[in-house]
Specification:
By secondary structure, this protein is mainly β. The two termini are 20 Å apart. The strands form 5 sheets. Strands 4, 5, 6, 7, 8, 10, 11 and 12 form an 8-stranded antiparallel sheet that branches. Strands 1, 2, 17, 20 and 21 form a 5-stranded mixed sheet that branches. It has a 3-stranded antiparallel sheet with strand order 15-19-18, with no helix packed on it. Residues 5-36 have low confidence and may be disordered. The protein has strands at 2-8, 14-23, 26-29, 38-50, 56-67, 79-86, 102-106, 113-114, 117-118, 132-143, 149-155, 171-177, 192-193, 197-198, 205-209, 212-213, 220-225, 266-268, 274-278, 283-295, 298-299.
Length: 300
């Protein structure tokens, strides 16, 4: 998932959650000028069943996008465009949307939902925080292959003035469906990050819960801090030709990096996905968490 956290006064088969940190007395979520309404997102896949063609499978691809409480920002759109790529050869899986891509449409119900806000005891007289999100889905039938498939949505322009990332960088939300090289038998659905927004106090002990659940109950999850993707060639929130992998990293500002997005004062628990430590000072911070998935000890 990809979020903007800002602190102000008063996210191999890996799943990415990237959050931009709103810094001051509390952490909340925001994003940029051309895509100011999008503060974060996540892409996931779920196995639906065997396909109609021999040796194929049907998956449901879901894109989840979060919107901040800026009244001047655009509303969440009724649909977005994603690209799907064959990891065996890099070829695009042809769809029917713009530039032969695919269209994900808003799920109604549930429609646009409110994001739960978790406030710590160090916040006194917190302002009203109103964040919303919507999910967008499609189904796709894919032939079984060796290296699987990548689905991706790209958007432009994180907010300027962030402490740990350079200006004018976008975001890529993607998921990777494993092929037979990593998953010789069986089927798979990706983990799902939780929705709540955690508010934390600057320069104080904190915890941020980046945990996820996996529909495949026997799979085990391992969390790590990792680099956040930029937006590639995207120029706005309605970009309709997302590229295939590999994806480029955002540019981190010294002394911050992917493994230390808050500096050296915070770490992530590999088993639980909880980030804890001492919060940084005022500013906005990009945080990216990856999940590695294992089945019976084998990385998939």
């Amino acid at each position: 998932m990809n979020f903007c956290w800002k602190l102000r006064n008063i996210n191999r088969r890996s799943v990415f959650m990237k959050r931009i940190l709103l810094a001051s007395l509390l952490f909340s979520l925001t994003l940029p000028a051309l895509a100011a309404h999008i503060i974060g997102g996540e892409m996931r896949y779920a196995y639906v069943g065997p396909g109609g063609a021999p040796n194929s499978k049907i998956y449901r691809i879901t894109l989840i996008l979060f919107r901040g409480d800026d009244p001047s920002g655009a509303q969440l759109a009724p649909f977005y465009v994603v690209g799907v790529y064959n990891n065996d050869n890099g070829a695009k899986v042809i769809g029917t949307a713009a530039n032969n891509n695919w269209q994900v449409t808003q799920d109604i119900p549930p429609g646009i939902q409110s994001v739960p806000i978790v406030l710590p005891t160090c916040i006194q007289g917190a302002p009203s925080l109103n964040y919303t999100y919507a999910s967008y889905s499609m189904t796709i039938e894919l032939p079984v292959n060796q290296n699987g498939y990548t689905a991706a949505y790209q958007t432009c322009c994180r907010i300027n003035g962030m402490m740990n990332v350079g200006n004018s960088t976008g975001s890529t939300y993607n998921c990777i469906i494993p092929g037979t090289n990593l998953l010789p038998t069986g089927d798979d659905s990706s983990p799902r990050f939780l929705a709540p927004v955690n508010v934390i106090c600057r320069n104080a002990p904190f915890t941020l819960n980046f945990s996820a659940t996996d529909p495949d109950a026997t799979d085990s999850l391992a969390y790590s801090l990792c680099f956040a993707y930029n937006g590639g060639a995207s120029v706005n929130a309605g970009f309709d030709d997302p590229a295939g992998p590999p994806y480029g990293s955002v540019s981190y500002t010294n002394p911050f990096n992917a493994g230390n997005p808050f500096g050296t004062g915070a770490t992530i628990n590999r088993q639980t996905g909880v980030i804890s430590g001492i919060a940084p000072d005022f500013g906005k911070y990009v945080v990216s968490v990856c999940i590695d998935v294992f089945r019976q000890g084998r990385f998939i």
